Every structure is written in C-alpha cells, then in structure tokens.
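STRUCTURE:
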C-alpha cells in the first residue's frame, strides 16, 4: 500500500519508519511548513520569562513548538542575551507522547500529560481534576498562529492567568528560508523524530494531487487540521477507496467538515496509532 505523509522530509522520519516497518510504501509531499513571524519580539520576551522561571507551568502542544523555542533560544544566546536552553522550574505539561519524547530528549523532564485523550480537551479535563501544583496560576502557552483557541479559553475558565503566544506560523511549503524553523531536535537524531535519510518517494504538490485522483495513493495520513484543509484545497474530490486517517479528534472533525470521509482516528497522536487504524481497516 502506498501511504502519503504530507510533511517535509525533515519532519517525517517517524512516519516513514512506521510505514516501512508495516510493509507499506511511504510517499512524501510537503503541503505546509513552519516559520517564525516577521517580528519575534513577543515570542522572545515570553521565552526569556519562561527560562527565567516567571511562570508556574508551561504547556506544549506540538513538537514544532519545541523546535521553535529551541531555535529562538539559540539565536538569543548567540546575540548576547543571557538565555540558556535548559529546563526551568515549574510544572511542564505535554499534550501527548511525541511531544513528551521531544522535550525529554532535550533534557526537559515532563511532569504529566493527559490520558487517555491526548488533546487540548484532555489537558483541560486533567487540570480540572488536578490543578497546577502548589496553587500556581501563571501558565505559559506557546503555540501555532492557527491553534484552536479552546485550550486558552478553557484554561482561563479554570481561573488561570494564561500567556498564550504565537511561537510560529503555519505557512504554505516551502517557507522562506530566512524564517523557517530548522532547529534539529535530539529526538530526531535518535531516530524517533523527523529526519528522513533514505530514498523515500517525494512528490511535488501537483504530482501528488494527480496520484491521489488516479487512485495510486491508497491511504493518506492527515496530521493536523491545517493539513486537512490544504489537502482538500489541492486535491478536491478524493476517490472513495482512498483511506484517510486523522491524527486526532480535532483533525478528524475538520476533515469531516470539509466533506472528507475519515476511515479512522488515531487513539494517540503518533505514527504507530495512525498506522494501527489502517491495519484495523484492512483486517
């Protein structure tokens, strides 16, 4: 089975490995990319505050957020700022296993994450039952510019003071190289993260769209709501036999709202869970 991963090669390693290990053929096509905003003042200011221990907790909702903050920390340090990429005090919460692995590979021990639902809703449910330790109120929430505001709204409804900052922007691929997020993560170097070093099939968007329409792509992994939107914009009508798997409930809901038929929604936001959905449908 030819399974499409709509990510650039440097962010698709875990998916390519899982697809190959399952006996299938990975096909890469980057539809979106990630870049810093033109003005990084807000993210730089909040990052300095976090590393200076001015928050009671920080919540990370994606691996890209980890990469973005690491890259800005390195840039700030190189410019002479007193900034070190080291875990500050305060509680550290991860949305799920992939982000947790990325943080801990960088030396940032994660205190907890939601279970069983690894999502913004899961974080809110967890904190409604077990608040930030020691009565902490100040939460650092770096995220994408297209992030669903429900997490920020929900945290404020629970009584927290939330500093929500756009750590990066989701843009059409390829991003401007002067603003692109490129910081390597140690989790990627260990084989669990992003970098693809083999001869995986990589298609340009228009070629990929034709492959999908012709039925030569048998399954597509939708790894975010923004990717689902770009996929529909590019491909249009999807053959009914093409199986679409969403990485989580929010992506599944977005895909359905766009008129796509979702074959499965991963139980956890990772490559193995997405492939498990395809194997379940095959059995």
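SEQUENCE:
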């Amino acid at each position: 089975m030819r399974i499409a991963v709509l990510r650039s090669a440097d962010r698709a390693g875990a998916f390519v490995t899982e697809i190959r290990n399952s006996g299938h053929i990975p096909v890469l096509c980057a539809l979106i990319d990630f870049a810093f905003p033109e003005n990084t003042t807000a993210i730089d200011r909040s990052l300095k505050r976090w590393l200076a221990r001015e928050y009671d907790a920080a919540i990370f909702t994606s691996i890209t957020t980890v990469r973005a903050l690491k890259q800005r920390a390195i840039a700030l340090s190189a410019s002479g700022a007193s900034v070190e990429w080291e875990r500050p005090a305060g509680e550290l919460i991860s949305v799920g296993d992939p982000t947790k692995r990325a943080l801990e590979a960088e030396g940032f021990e994660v205190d907890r994450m939601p279970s069983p639902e690894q999502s913004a809703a899961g974080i809110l449910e967890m904190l409604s039952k077990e608040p930030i330790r020691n009565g902490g109120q100040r939460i650092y929430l770096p995220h994408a510019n297209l992030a669903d505001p429900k997490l920020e709204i929900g945290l404020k409804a629970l009584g927290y003071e939330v500093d929500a900052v756009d750590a990066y922007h989701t843009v059409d691929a390829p991003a401007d190289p002067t603003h692109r997020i490129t910081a390597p993560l140690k989790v990627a170097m260990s084989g669990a993260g992003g970098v693809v070093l083999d001869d995986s099939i990589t298609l340009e968007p228009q070629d990929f769209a034709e492959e999908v329409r012709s039925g030569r792509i048998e399954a597509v992994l939708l790894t975010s709501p923004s990717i689902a939107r770009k996929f529909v914009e590019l491909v249009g009508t999807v053959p009914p036999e093409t199986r679409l798997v969403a990485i989580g409930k929010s992506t599944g809901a977005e895909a359905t709202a766009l008129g796509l038929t979702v074959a499965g929604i991963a139980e956890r936001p990772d490559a193995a869970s997405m492939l498990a959905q395809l194997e379940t449908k095959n059995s």
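REMARK: The mean pLDDT is 93.
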